[in-house]
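Regression check, cobalt (II) ion case 260:
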Amino acid sequence: MMLVRRNAVIHTLEEIVRIRRAAQLTAGVRDEVARLATAGMTTKELDDLAGSLIAATGGESAFLGYAGYPGNICISVNDEVVHGIGRPDRVLLPTDIVSIDLGVRIDGACGDTAVTFGLGAPLPPATQNLLEATSRALAAGIAAALPGNFIRDISAAVEEVGRRAHVGIVRDYVGHGCGIKLHEPPEVPNFTSSMRGPKLEPGMVLAIEPMFNQGTYKVTTDRSDQWTVRTGDGLPSAHFEHMVLITEKEPEILTWPKTM
Ligand code: MF3
Ligand code: CO
Ligand code: CO
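Current build output:
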């Protein structure tokens, strides 16, 4: 059984074997959904497609039914930040930016990964800057995921990239431990505060997930579906997420794209 120490989960080797597999399957589905997403589809069709791909892994959606979540995956378009639900009346346009966030649960372990991409039309420079900054911030956060560092070092690395890019850094949602449960301690904020958080130790698995907005950092939750989070000013938002294993040396990115 996993060990919870100083409010962080340290996974056993046996758990890490299962988490690694769940994360790799999750990454494969992510890349396939992103490859197959096209203008003209509805977000419901994309969610159904993701459901089929998840089922084909032999696992199930880690999100469906989580706190009552109704979709297979989260699909957040343009000003939607996170937790967008696939809808039969939302037709994707070539000018849209689409964030997909998903997890496969299999053999008692789960994955969690997200990516944001355009659907083909050239993006406004400010939106291109947003996507690049969010992706770079994730890379910077991962580079800080070293044993002996603190959670705050990851937060600082992510925040620094966001500040330099002049984007709005979402504060209401944070990264997290992950692996056996979808959300485990500790929290991994994308901004720094007085809290240093736990010290990073081998066996911790963290979902690092910058959520950046082109304009205001402020967000609102849809009043009718109670899930969809949107930017306060209607400007676009981007989200990238990887699961990383803290090791004795470099972090291992568990949701890295498959090479074969
Ligand atoms: N995948 C989200 C995260 O990165 C959580 C989704 S919650 C759900 O933490 F209910 F939508 F599944
Ligand atoms: Co996620
Ligand atoms: Co997550």
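Comparison notes: The longest strand covers residues 97-102. The mean pLDDT is 97. No diff flagged against the previous build.
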